[in-house]
């Protein structure tokens, strides 16, 4: 039996196929303006027996595909992360337009979670816009910040205000890399706050697209004073979890 | 064909086209949220009727009462004693404030970071869309939270019949004395308004009527302990909302009728939702008509609400008044005692509320508690973190939600609520 998990996020769509508890296929695409036709595209040519959707587009998907089930991104992430790291007790997920923190018990059940509210502050989108302002590509941004000697403090978490702060720092002739590091540091502070609010303890997994940024991982580890676990494909955790939950139902 | 109430609304000086728009939204909301529910008790038909006539027949009744020289008093808080109003031969109406209206106008008078409830009360006045407000002979405000206190100072310039009741903030001997004095002052004000002297008999009768309607809601609350829950949280909330403006005797009778029906349902093991549906207790700010947003999200996400720890709910109706006193003073003492137990978050300290939330969660077999705070409502949001800690230390999952009357955050809220339901039902 092949189970599929599809994570329809606001920026990207991931698909994972699982057979006998093994991942046999992963795919990814942009969400674009029409999530359902993008989902169709990503599913083209693959075969599965059951599918479970997660992410903000899950309900749209359920309407479009009669036999799909849904699960929230919270539970899906928990399942996906535990599949790769059975010892995980906390999760930080920072994606394109949202972020969340989750605390798990020993059995991997969600006992507390937090989600960011209605804005881009502290998400991948924030870093993306700032990278652009500083003239870095997204791939350069993390390493550049990591190489900086110190961070220049950025006071505003609001994307719009932070943008003007950055502009005035550039105008003052401040170092681009140090500004970049300051921006990372402000996202880290917010993430640590979110983890604290759920009482995160023990092994922590960092997932979502932003976990691919080496500076974020390093600074999170420094801020928490411990190693941070990062999956090989941090963006796939939601889809993987959905597929695993579907498989467990059978 | 429904009666044409336009002349009546016009005579109240209302803005007819704005009012049409409001009624349109209300009807649509009611259809989508209430009438779309499955397995409703038949007795809810009464409340469907009440809601369809909320600005019609009920207003006509009130205007008929006014023609008989009966006074109408409007209030915004459960601290305003209906017993005294009834004893004075007047009618008390709760003014609802559960929807955004005339927001731009409102923000000329109030800062943006004011809670939705206060903004709404201004919006209904400034938009001239609330027939209850327009037909009231006296409007009672109260010194509860800072937002309301200051808002009434401004509101006083918009109406000519505002009476402000002071309230204690500490449950001390002095606090109780203040409450009693304020009830005495209110009694005099009601007597002056109506021209009727309040007698022992009248007060006893008032207490009896109000006790009866509270008792009917207690009966309803207890029936919700059953699994499967015999009635949805939305429907039970509606009964608690209508409590504030229906004719008291008719309300009591209708709720009791529903309870009879629910008793049969429970015997037959029938519910509004299947048995073992995850059960949620809501706790926090009052939900006034037509603020059904959060309960609707919860009950369309696979859970059932089994209780409301709120002023539109058990906090407001919890205790009855001892009516055994034989003198005016004994009776005034008795209901000062009764009201002094209301554990509104404006009191400090307020351990009782936290204890009540725990009691209710256990008594109603809730799998989790959702704390509902209106954005910018300092008293309830400040209490929400200690409440959450208390509950979680006892192993009762709790999620804090802060929202307003807007619909922009429905998608986000739905995800959070669904995830919470997954968390408590696994
Ligand atoms: S919450 Fe407090 S202020 Fe509001 S109605 Fe209840 S008692 Fe009154
Ligand atoms: S909801 Fe809170 S802020 Fe608003 S009136 Fe009630 S107590 Fe005051």
Automatic annotation (TrEMBL), chain A:
Residues in ATPase BadF/BadG/BcrA/BcrD type domain copies: 5-245
The keyword Metal-binding belongs to this UniProt entry's keyword annotation: yes
SUPFAM superfamilies noted in UniProt: Actin-like ATPase domain
InterPro entries membership: ATPase_BadF (IPR002731), ATPase_NBD (IPR043129), CoA_E_activase_dom (IPR008275), Dehydratase_Activator_Redct (IPR051805)
A molecular function (GO) term: iron-sulfur cluster binding
The keyword Transmembrane helix is annotated on this UniProt entry: no
Keywords from the named record: Iron, Iron-sulfur, Metal-binding
Cofactor: [4Fe-4S] cluster
PANTHER family in the record: ACTIVATOR OF (R)-2-HYDROXYGLUTARYL-COA DEHYDRATASE (PTHR32329:SF8), BIFUNCTIONAL PROTEIN [INCLUDES 2-HYDROXYACYL-COA DEHYDRATASE (N-TER) AND ITS ACTIVATOR DOMAIN (C_TERM)-RELATED (PTHR32329)
UniProt name for this protein: 3-hydroxyacyl-ACP dehydratase
Organism: Desulfobacter latus
From TrEMBL, chain B:
PANTHER family according to UniProt: 2-HYDROXYGLUTARYL-COA DEHYDRATASE, D-COMPONENT-RELATED, DEHYDRATASE SUBUNIT MJ0007-RELATED
NCBIfam families for this protein: double_cubane (NF040772)
Signal peptide: none
Family label: Belongs to the FldB/FldC dehydratase alpha/beta subunit family.
Highest taxon above the source species: Bacteria
Listed InterPro entries: FldB/FldC_alpha/beta (IPR010327), YjiM-like (IPR047678)
Protein name as annotated: 2-hydroxyacyl-CoA dehydratase
């Amino acid at each position: 039996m092949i189970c599929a998990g599809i994570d329809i996020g606001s920026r990207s769509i991931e698909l994972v196929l699982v057979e006998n508890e093994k991942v046999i296929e992963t795919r990814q695409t942009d969400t674009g303006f029409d999530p359902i036709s993008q989902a169709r595209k990503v599913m083209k040519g693959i075969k599965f027996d059951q599918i479970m959707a997660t992410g903000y587009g899950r309900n749209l998907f359920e309407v479009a595909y009669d036999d799909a089930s849904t699960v929230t991104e919270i539970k899906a992430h928990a399942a996906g992360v535990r599949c790769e790291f059975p010892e995980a007790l906390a999760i930080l997920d920072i994606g394109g337009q949202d972020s969340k923190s989750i605390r798990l018990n020993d059995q991997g059940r969600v006992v507390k979670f937090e989600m960011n509210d209605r804005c881009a502050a502290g998400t991948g989108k924030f870093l993306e816009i700032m990278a652009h302002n500083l003239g870095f590509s997204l791939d350069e941004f993390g390493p550049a910040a990591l190489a900086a000697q110190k961070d220049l403090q950025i006071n505003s978490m609001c994307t719009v205000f932070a943008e003007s702060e950055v502009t005035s720092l550039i105008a003052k002739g401040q170092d681009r890399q140090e500004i970049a590091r300051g921006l990372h540091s402000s996202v880290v502070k917010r993430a640590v706050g979110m983890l604290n609010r759920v009482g995160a303890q023990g092994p922590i997994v960092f997932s979502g697209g932003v976990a691919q940024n080496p500076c974020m991982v390093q600074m999170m580890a420094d801020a928490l004073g411990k190693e941070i676990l990062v999956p090989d494909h941090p963006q796939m955790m939601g889809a993987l979890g959905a597929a695993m939950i579907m498989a467990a139902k059978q | 064909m429904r009666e044409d109430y336009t002349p009546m609304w016009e005579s109240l000086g209302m803005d007819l086209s704005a009012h049409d728009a409001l009624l349109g939204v209300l009807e649509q909301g009611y259809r989508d949220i209430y009438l779309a529910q499955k397995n409703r008790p038949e007795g809810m038909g009464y409340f469907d009727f009440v809601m369809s006539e909320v600005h019609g027949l009920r207003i006509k009744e009130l205007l008929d009462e006014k023609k008989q020289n009966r006074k109408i008093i409007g209030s915004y808080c459960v601290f305003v004693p209906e017993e005294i109003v009834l004893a004075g031969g007047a009618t008390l109406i709760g003014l609802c404030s559960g929807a955004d209206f005339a927001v731009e106008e409102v923000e000329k008078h109030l800062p943006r970071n004011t809670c939705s409830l206060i903004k709404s009360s201004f919006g209904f006045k400034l938009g001239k869309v609330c027939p209850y407000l327009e037909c009231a002979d006296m409007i009672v405000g109260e010194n509860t939270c800072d937002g309301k206190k200051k808002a009434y100072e401004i509101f006083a310039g918009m109406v000519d019949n505002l009476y402000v009741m002071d309230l204690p903030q500490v449950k001390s001997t002095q606090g109780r004395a203040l409450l009693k004095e304020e009830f005495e002052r209110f009694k005099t004000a009601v007597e002056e308004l109506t021209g009727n002297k309040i007698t022992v008999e009248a007060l006893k009768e008032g207490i009896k009527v109000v006790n009866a309607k509270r008792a009917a809601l207690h009966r309803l609350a207890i029936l919700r302990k059953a699994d499967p829950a015999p009635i949805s949280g939305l429907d039970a909330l509606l009964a608690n909302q209508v409590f504030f403006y229906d004719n008291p005797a008719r309300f009591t009778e209708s709720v009791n009728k529903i309870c009879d029906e629910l008793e049969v349902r429970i015997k037959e093991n029938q519910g509004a939702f299947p048995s073992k549906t995850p059960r949620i207790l809501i706790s926090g700010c009052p939900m006034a008509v037509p603020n059904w947003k959060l309960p609707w999200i919860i009950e369309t996400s696979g859970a059932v609400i089994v209780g409301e720890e709120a002023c539109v709910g058990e906090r407001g109706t919890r205790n009855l008044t001892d009516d055994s006193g034989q003198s005016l003073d004994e009776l005034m003492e008795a209901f000062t005692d009764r009201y002094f137990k209301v554990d509104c978050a404006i009191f400090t300290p307020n351990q009782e509320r936290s204890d009540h939330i725990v009691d209710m969660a256990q008594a109603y077999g809730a799998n989790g508690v959702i704390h509902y705070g209106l954005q910018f409502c300092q008293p309830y949001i400040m209490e929400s973190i200690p409440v959450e800690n208390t509950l979680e230390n006892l192993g009762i999952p709790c999620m804090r939600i802060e929202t307003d009357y807007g619909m922009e955050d429905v998608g986000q809220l739905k995800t959070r609520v669904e995830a919470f339901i997954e968390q408590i039902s696994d």
